[in-house]
From TrEMBL:
Gene3D superfamilies: NADH Oxidase. Residues 119-304 form the Nitroreductase domain. This is Nitroreductase family protein. Residues 304-338 are annotated as: Disordered. It comes from Actinomycetospora cinnamomea. One of its GO terms (molecular function) is oxidoreductase activity. Pfam families: Nitroreductase (PF00881). SUPFAM superfamilies: FMN-dependent nitroreductase-like.
């Protein structure tokens, strides 16, 4: 079904791409680049938006592209189209990682409806969470939606949690010694006023945050205050590790889809989440997480209940569609006439 011949298909694809702009990415770099052809979309990593000192292996960019791909799937599904996705198994990250076709669908999956409603509400929340723990049945649902994309969710508690938390602390110290890291962090947390990417003042906490045993990456100079009510030791968040099926490009992109599904499922249950990748960006600490979680860990997720009556954190900005899309969808005869 070509978008050059079918206005309804073109409208659905462009609307789905608009929704994909809301996908999460490390430091809100938005490292995706789409190309619209007459019969398909191609997705690639934008090499200019990688984080070479933070994300040396490039997996963070692949995760973000996977999240954008999942958001696109949802947008197509709720508009009556079945996405036809093919992932590239190998190859440099700056090359194409996926292509997506589409065909009319008879039904809309329940997960797609629920997740579509959550896309605009989802936020990364770095603030303190509430004192009530997450229902185990909800954790089972998070594992279910991840499995649909070959992702494995591990709840880390007890000794495993201590191992992961200690690794997080060590990673924060080791990464500060990495040349170029501090400058890169400064670049993406101090964008120009009115910018469409990075982490603006309003989404960064105003002071360092310690939640019982858990220390998160510190983004200095923020203006977001902790919610009223509760205290640090009352944060009852659950720590999860999401692992990919393998180490290859396609497996990590697929894990990005699983991450997106988990974060949207969290939002659908009126919970909050903080994706954490710092501990996986240092070889030594990543190996320690792998030993307790198994598989190939790609992201740690802090999931909990928001403090009652706390307003949602501000939305992070996004680039517009024209900034991420190359439109080559004209039919060959139309191209020849130009």
């Amino acid at each position: 079904m070509t978008v050059s011949r079918d206005p309804a298909a073109r409208e659905a694809v462009l609307a789905a791409l608009e929704g994909a702009l809301r996908a999460p990415s490390e430091h809100n770099t938005q490292p995706w680049r789409w190309t619209l052809l007459p019969d398909r979309l191609e997705l690639a990593v934008d090499p200019h938006r990688r984080l070479p000192f933070t994300d040396e292996r490039g997996e963070g960019a692949l995760l973000a592209c996977g999240a954008a791909l999942h958001h696109l799937r949802i947008g197509l599904a709720v508009r009556g189209w079945t996405p036809l996705v093919r992932l590239d198994r190998e190859g440099p990250p700056q090359r194409r990682v996926a292509e997506v076709g589409w065909e009319p669908a008879d039904t809309v999956p329940d997960d797609a409806r629920r997740h579509a409603a959550a896309i605009e509400r989802r936020r990364t929340d770095r603030r303190r969470f509430g004192a009530d723990p997450v229902d185990p049945a909800v954790l089972d649902e998070l594992a279910r939606v991840a499995r649909a994309f070959d992702g494995a969710v591990h709840v880390v508690a007890g000794r495993a949690r201590r191992t992961v938390v200690e690794a997080m602390r060590d990673a924060a110290l080791l990464q500060l010694e990495r040349p170029g890291y501090a400058a890169e962090l400064q670049r993406w947390t101090h964008r120009y006023v009115g910018g469409a990417d990075g982490l603006p003042h309003g989404v960064r906490l105003s002071e360092p945050h310690l939640y019982d045993d858990l220390v998160l990456r510190w983004f200095p100079g923020g203006g977001l205050d902790q919610p009223h009510g509760g205290s640090d030791h009352e944060d009852a968040s659950t720590l999860l590790v999401l692992s990919a099926h393998g180490h290859d490009t396609a497996s990590v992109v697929r894990a990005g889809e699983a991450m997106s599904a988990v974060l949207l499922e969290v939002t659908a249950h009126d919970l909050a989440a903080t994706p954490v990748t710092q501990v996986l960006e240092v070889d030594e600490t990543r190996e320690r997480v792998s030993e307790v979680a198994g598989g190939h860990p790609v992201v740690v997720l802090r999931v909990g209940r928001p403090v009652p009556e706390a307003p949602p954190p501000p939305r992070t900005p996004r680039r517009d569609l024209a900034s991420v899309l190359i439109d080559r969808s004209a039919a060959p005869d139309e191209q020849a006439a130009r």
